[in-house]
């Protein structure tokens, strides 16, 4: 069968696989996301498949279903279903029933939930205030007067959720036998990530609570674990406000909590490490502190539809929880690692190019099921037999589509920077279909965001779309990236456009010197977020690139400080200063200060509802470029935030890929023809 090049429009045909859960009989439930082109939106449906890969069928008939979870006995499947108003309700599917039943309506606006181990209750997080009094408008029958929105907190907005609505998320319990809902927490703080104790007598959750009114919670970068006893509703703090806890689990014996947390020694460039603490509280102790690894998934990509799996999982035959399974970001891949009590750390998902973003253990501990991207295909479910380590692919939801497409496999590259850092990356070199074709291949350098994130050598629609146009595509992990040790991750802090800039330029030189078919006269560069600001800096200081694309960029660190939802921590931590005391330094590191030097045609793309890198960053750059008569174009995407390329409206994602291809083709392909 003849395969054709990948085009931007192919985005509409992928099936995104996520959220696997498995019961005692070996039935795996998972979520499949697809695109409804007519409605220009994403649909999610729950499917089921056996551990032998058989009977991969739809389990629910909804189009907005997510978060499947088996009951402790494995005979009931709960899930969330979005209502017309956008909130999510809790539903349950029981064997023998043709249709699922609703337990809690979408009015509850459930954010997450978890079964109690005894199967009698479900804990959930919601922003909804249950049994609230009627509003003024409802009582009077007249619309409430229009008033200004008042904010007093330091950071009143957040990427993805917008301006703060004044509500806090809290913990509730739903009792299955009676249908009773009880609110367990309240206060001017939010909670998240509920977890039951093994005996179902307590719940733990994450929260940041500041008792000292002189302190500003928005300027304190920690998260604690709290526990609450169900019987008396007494809540207490387990940790000691010196760690930013991101995930945690009870050990099987219920005696300890294992945490994935950061001490924030190097701000956002600090590794997540493993810690443990008694459930009663006390000293938090590091686990396997000798492991110089980022725990969790720090890999960026455009082919993941759900966040990475949360807490550590434990060996079934080890009640004390000394052997655990966690995600680890290391060396350009993300895998599931087994960490034993003696400190041994071993990947159990292999050594190939991989981005494992979710995983779960079967109840008997004999199988690990994980969702992963690989070098040549979108995410699918895989099965690891824990006895012999054999890996099998369970789902094949993208096989039919992928059989039609020409997929370019990346080659891993490695070199040492001029000051001794090991640099790793990948390159795709499209094959020439016409053997007589003598023209060299233009190359595009892609730069990731973060900076404390990581590229992998796995399937990316964005990169494959560029390669399909006939470009070699180079992407690397410069200093500041996760996955190469703590010293490497923090190496860019306070040195923006220093070592990280040199790493990228040396990667280009390495590729040109290694692969003779690359055309050094036809180079492009592009990136988003931190990759966008780095693109801006590069073209302002290096004129060898013939075309550039900057997306979701930063151009001015001074204005970024006060307009971004992370402006204070990011500018002070990564760049190293604030406008009050370091204005000259911040301006000297701002691409806007050198925009008049840019000669490279620059396409600027930005979401209008971006609160991480506000669209004013793009506007300032665009205005300056136009003032000095530079070649540029600004594309604004309505209703889009910082995650446009990952979860934005499908039509806008397709358009963004088409615009990028068109821009590079205009200046790189034509340049080759003129030469």
Write up this protein.
This protein is of the alpha+beta class. Helices cover 17% and strands 34% of the residues. It is built from 12 helices and 41 strands. It has an 8-stranded mixed beta sheet with strand order 34-35-37-36-38-39-40-41, with helices on both faces. Strands 24, 25, 26, 27 and 28 form a 5-stranded antiparallel beta sheet that branches. A 4-stranded antiparallel beta sheet has the order 2-3-4-5, with no helix packed on it. Helix 7 (557-563) packs antiparallel against helix 8. The radius of gyration is 25 Å and the shape is globular. The chain starts with a strand and ends with a helix. Residues 130-138 and 671-675 have low confidence and may be disordered.
Termini distance?
36 Å
Binned, the helix content reads 10-25%
Mean pLDDT: 93
User: What is the β-strand count?
Assistant: 41
What oligomeric state do the depicted chains represent?
single chain
Biggest sheet architecture:
8 strands, mixed
The value of Rg in angstroms is 25 Å
Specify the overall morphology.
globular
Q: Which band does the percent of strand residues land in?
A: 25-35%
Poorly predicted ranges (pLDDT <50, ≥5 residues)?
A: 130-138, 671-675
Q: What is the strand arrangement across the widest sheet?
A: 34-35-37-36-38-39-40-41
Structural class: alpha+beta
Helix count, DSSP H or I runs of 4 or more residues? 12
